[in-house]
Structure formats: structure tokens, C-alpha cells
Amino acid sequence: MRKIFSLFGVLAFALVLVLVACGEEEGSNGAEEGGESDGDLHKIGILAPEVTHGWVAAVAYHAEQRAEELSDEIEYQIQTSSNAGEMTSQLDDLLTWGADAIVAFPQWEGMEVPIENAVEQGVEVVNFDIVIDVDGVYRVAGDNKDMGVQGAHYIVDKVGESGHVVALEVPSAGSVSTLRMEGFEETIEEIAPSMEISTYATEFTREDGLQDFQDILTSNDHIDAVYSLDDETSVGVIQAIEEAGRDEIQVVTGGGGMQEYFEMMPENDGLWIQSALYSPVMVEDAVDMAIDILDGADVDEDKIIPTTIVDRENYDEFLDEDSPY
User: Fold this and answer.
1) pLDDT tens across 86-124, in order?
2) Count of other CB atoms within 10 angstroms of residue 87
3) Strand locations in the chain, DSSP E?
4) What is the largest CA-CA distance in the chain?
5) How far, CA to CA in Å, does 85 sit from each of 19, 52, 92, 114, 119?
6) Are 199 and 228 in contact (CB under 8 A)?
7) Cα angle vertex 241, ends 237, 246, to 5°?
């Protein structure tokens, strides 16, 4: 088994670089610290969660990278938070700063009212990934429901129309988990109604994937496939499978775009490891959308990026040695 816990050190270091570049408290860039901003520059605020997951770290990294590339067009601040209350406070700070647009990755419930307040003040808001039920908010995301659809087709293609599938939902992920599960369940009901589905809750971390799946293996004598929503969760799942010596499991799905996970694909001949690509690089589209809106371009409210499936047959096309995730 490869060393699977070393990535967090790299990701933490990458995020430290991001935060240092942006300022530990203010996260300012694009103007001299404490100086006057250039009136011709758009002021863009970026809100992201603190690192609890490699994919989240990569979102912050790519948002900062894109903002820096556009530093001749924008002045920006990046803030990271650990809960909805902290993100709300940071959103207020960005409004006081005079943000023209905010790119928000609101991972928790309770962000509807503060985001609605920003919109009412005339600030353009582009949500990344998460659905927020507020009129006037733009959004960039992958096709979460189609990821579930593709996962169902992949599993049925590999194991047939009957068998036992363990599905790992992540209730704390809100609409992301809901949509991925809906796509999966609806498609299985349509194409393989005899398939037995057992659903368990977990989190988007390899530690939870490992611990939860160890318990699941103890409770289930036979499993044909695992429908996992996330690459990091799946890394833990695969470790649990290998440690238990369970060789009947034929498929483990995932989602995200994790380089370490991609590299595991050709190393497991008896197990089809799949990922529905949901690249953190998409956040760059959200930054670009915010600028287009401020420039007066005609922009659709939702930009949904199609699903790409990665497995051992094409993984090498998606390897990127510069990726932080």
C-alpha cells in the first residue's frame, strides 16, 4: 500500500503560502498595504473554508493563483473560515472594504442571509460549488447529479445488474452529497432495479473513509462495489479493503481529481478505481465570471461543467505534477 497520509503536509504548506501571499488577517493584494486602491481595478473578495480536505486546499490555491494572474485587472482579498459565523464576519469585512464582487465557497448552512444582504447592497456574488437559495447569485460548479449518474453506470458496467453496493453519502456536504446520491439512486433504480444498495454516512476525508469502512466491512460479509462520492474518502476505503484482505469488491468510485488517487488506479489490477473528475481548478472559472459580470458581459447565472470519468484506462491523461491536490 502506498503512503497515503503524507499529502496533508504538502497541502498545508501550499495553503500557508496562499495565506502568506494574501495576508494573515486582511488577505489583501493588488495595492500597497494600507494604501489607496486604484479606482480602475475591480475589487474581488474570495471566501473559502479552512483546510479540512485536500480538495478544499486546492480550491484556495487555484483561486489565489488566478487572482494573482489577474492582478493588473483586480484588487483582491482571500479569507478562509472554519464555520458559517466566521465566514459571515469575513463577508461583512469584504463589504466594508468595498468589494465589487465576491466569490464564495459557502460550505455550511446559514450563509443565505449574509449572502442575500451582499446582493441587496449591489455586490455581485458568484457561488462556487455549493447551491445557495438566494435570488441574483451566480454559480460555477461541476455536474454533481451527473457524477452520480455516471457512477451508477460505471458500477453496473463492471459488476452487472445485480449485487450488493455500499453507497457512502456525506450529509455534511449539503447539496453536493444530495445531488450525487440522487443521480446514483435514480439511475440504479432505472438500469439495475435488482441491485441491493446499503447506504452509510461518512465524511470527505481519508481518515473517515478508513474508519467508517472498517466498520462497514465488519457488518457486511459480501460487497460487490462501493459508490463513494470523493477521492479522499475512497483512499481510506481502499486501505480498509486491503487491510481486511477483502478481494470480492470489484469497484470503488470517487470524485474530485486527486493526483494520488489517480496514481493508485493502475496499481490495483483486481479493483476498478474510478473518479468522476470534479477539478478544483473550476474555481478559476468563478473568478473569471465575477470579472465578466463587473465588465458588463452577458453571463449565464449557472455554469455547470460536464463530468469526465477517470480510471486505469485514461488516468495518465490527467496527471499533473504541479497540482497541489
Assistant:
1) 999 999 999 999 999 999 988 777 889 999 999 999 999
2) 26
3) 28-29, 42-49, 74-81, 101-104, 124-128, 138-142, 164-169, 196-201, 225-228, 251-252, 255-256, 272-273, 275-277, 302-305, 308-310
4) 66
5) 20, 17, 11, 10, 18
6) no
7) 150
203, amino acid identity: E
DSSP assigned state of 314? T
Which amino acid, 300?
D
For the residues of 221-269, what is the DSSP string, one character each? S--SEEEES-HHHHHHHHHHHHHHT-----EE--EE--HHHHHHGGG-T
Kindly give the pairing relationship between strand 74-81 and strand 42-49: parallel
pLDDT at 176: 86
**Rounded Cα distance, 325 and 323, in Å:** 5
Do 278 and 301 meet the contact criterion of CB atoms below 8 Å apart?
no
pTM: 0.74
Report the amino acid identity of residue 177.
S
Enumerate residues 6+ apart whose C-beta is below 8 A from 319.
Answer: 259, 262, 263
Dihedral, CA of residue 286, residue 290, residue 292 and residue 294, to nearest 10 = 180
Structural domains of the chain sorted by starting position, each given as residue range(s) with its CATH number in brackets: 7-142+280-304 (3.40.50.2300), 144-277 (3.40.50.2300)
Closest CA to 27 of 15, 10, 9, 42: 15
- Rounded to whole angstroms, the Cα distance separating 172 from 202 reads 9
| Alpha carbon distances (Å) from 164 to 103, 209, 227, 254 | 41, 18, 11, 17
DSSP bridge pairs for 28: 77
Phi then psi for residue 285, to 5 deg, are: -65, -35
Instruction: State mean pLDDT over 54-83.
Output: 87
- What pLDDT is attached to residue 110? 84
